[in-house]
Structures are given as structure tokens and as C-alpha cells.
Amino acid sequence: MWAACIASQWAAANNIVTGHAYTLIAARTYTDPSGTTWKLLELRNPWGSKEYNGTWSDYDNDHMTSAARQYLYGTTAVDKNDGAFWIPFSNYQIAFEMTAFGRFNTADIVTNLDSVWNRGSS
Asked: Which of 24, 28, 54, 85 has the fewest Cβ atoms nearer than 10 Å?
């Protein structure tokens, strides 16, 4: 799966390359110690560098605790510049306008995500 980033000030301010495609790797929920459940997506910049630096990124020590890293990455050691990152679904909706399966051409099916977290239909 891949995701296309729209050109926006928000994306650029959060270190997401605008007008660029990312690999969409995984979707998970995580309940933090305060009881808040987060809907998170794992993406990877195919350049292998230049990754998102906002909420739930590898740079966010408030959310990406040792326990969260262990749950999401399977390890507490995280490379902060390998291109792979987690992003909240709400931020994903701001920065990415298109999600698709396979390679992109006119024969591919493309889905624009709505605000409903339903992996069966989105």
C-alpha cells in the first residue's frame, strides 16, 4: 500500500515531503498509560530518511515512550532517521490525500480516506 502526500504547510512543518509517495506498512491501536486509545499508522519514506517529526514520531518522547516503542516496533531502540515512522490517523488525514494498493495507474483502485476508522471499508 502507498500514500500520497498533499502539498501543505502542515506537512512541510512536520517534515513530510510534499508531492511524494510513502509506503503504508501497518495500522495499529495503542492505549497509552492515561487510557487514551490512539489509532496509528506506520509509514516509510522510500528514501530511507527524512521522516515525520510530529506527535507519535520517533522524536516525540512524550508519546513514544519505551513501552510504546516496544509495542509498535518490537524493540526499544529506534533509528530516528531510517524513513520509518508512526503517525496518528488524524494527522495522516491532514497530510495524505490518497491511499492505494499496488502501483498507481488508471487501472488501480484508489480510496480517499474519510474520518471513519474502519479497516473493512477504508
From this structure: 28
